[in-house]
């Protein structure tokens, strides 16, 4: 009888929704950030849309280098739209509740978009490596088909590898505290509320960080190291400047990504767009 009562109590404590408390450490005055964040969100949508429109309408920009920038702009819009509307709903309407299925969908989308950015950065680095280190082979290697295939591979890779993240989180038992000390459903924020063992979740998260994102960034750094070695061999200062200038949009994007890797997803999403879009627009 006692066992039955315990099981019934555990079942009754199974929560069905989480409460997003907002930005960590500033809960008391975070509502003052609603207007700046709304403006940043509109800026992200407008600037990325401008990038895509400019590349689409300008025939001279119909090159793999700028096509990857357009794809990155699409990813930025997707990531911003995944995160910002809920943040603004929390600040404006105190709508902190989010059902578990909705939370898991947001978690999956955030992980997909973030890893897609890493993958596109790698594609951009490969594009510049071939263009500078193997210029004669560039037209035959980096074609429109190359852009389509690499982008499709990244979508498939990240879409499939991210499925276990929400699936594993959904298998955890949430029976007590349901307050997430954040403004979005991050994997760590959700599974830290679980009442049972989360070792598998932690292991898979680390696997993704080191094997997926880590390998992408390692290859990006290697590509640019080879590019730097190649351009330093150029005897002409003008040729050296021209070669390095072709990497400027990609280098700025990668620099922003590295600088913000250690930040939380929300702060990263809120700050990234202005720094990322402005250099890209300057190059267009």
UniProtKB/TrEMBL annotation:
Ranges where the G-protein coupled receptors family 1 profile domain occurs: 47-284
Protein name stated in the entry: Olfactory receptor 56B4
Source domain of life: Eukaryota
Pfam families: 7tm_4
GO MF assignments: G protein-coupled receptor activity; olfactory receptor activity
Cellular location(s): Cell membrane
PANTHER family linked: OLFACTORY RECEPTOR 56B1-RELATED (PTHR26450), OLFACTORY RECEPTOR 56B4 (PTHR26450:SF142)
Acetylation is among the record's keywords: no
Membrane-related topology note: Multi-pass membrane protein
TM helices/strands, residue ranges: 38-56, 68-93, 207-227
Main location: membrane
GO cellular component, one term: plasma membrane
Taxonomic source organism: Tupaia chinensis
Xref: InterPro entries: GPCR_Rhodpsn_7TM, Olfact_rcpt, OR51/52/56-like
Keywords, ordered alphabetically: Cell membrane, G-protein coupled receptor, Membrane, Olfaction, Receptor, Sensory transduction, Transducer, Transmembrane, Transmembrane helix
């Amino acid at each position: 009888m006692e066992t039955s009562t315990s099981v019934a109590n555990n079942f009754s404590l199974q929560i069905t929704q989480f409460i997003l408390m907002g930005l960590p450490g500033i809960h008391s005055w975070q509502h003052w950030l609603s207007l700046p964040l709304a403006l940043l969100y509109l800026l992200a949508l407008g600037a990325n849309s401008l990038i895509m429109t400019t590349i689409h309408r300008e025939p001279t920009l119909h090159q793999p280098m700028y096509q990857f920038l357009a794809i990155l702009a699409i990813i930025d819009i997707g990531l911003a739209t995944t995160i910002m509307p809920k943040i603004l709903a929390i600040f404006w309407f105190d709508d902190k509740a989010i059902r578990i299925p909705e939370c898991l969908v947001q978690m999956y989308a955030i992980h997909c978009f973030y890893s897609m950015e890493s993958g596109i950065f790698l594609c951009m680095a490969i594009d510049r490596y071939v263009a500078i280190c193997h210029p004669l082979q560039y037209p035959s290697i980096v074609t429109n088909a190359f852009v389509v295939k690499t982008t499709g591979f990244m979508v498939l890779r990240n879409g499939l590898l991210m499925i276990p993240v929400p699936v594993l989180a959904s298998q955890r038992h949430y029976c007590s505290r349901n307050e997430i000390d954040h403004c979005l459903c991050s994997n760590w924020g959700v599974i830290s509320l679980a009442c049972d063992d989360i070792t598998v979740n932690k292991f898979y998260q680390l696997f993704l960080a080191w094997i997926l994102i880590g390998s992408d960034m390692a290859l990006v750094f290697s590509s640019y190291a080879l590019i730097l070695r190649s351009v330093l061999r150029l005897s002409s200062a003008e040729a050296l400047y021209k070669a390095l200038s072709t990497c400027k949009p990609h280098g700025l994007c990668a620099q922003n990504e590295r600088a913000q890797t250690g930040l939380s997803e929300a702060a990263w999403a809120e700050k990234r767009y202005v720094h990322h879009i402005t250099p890209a627009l300057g190059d267009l």
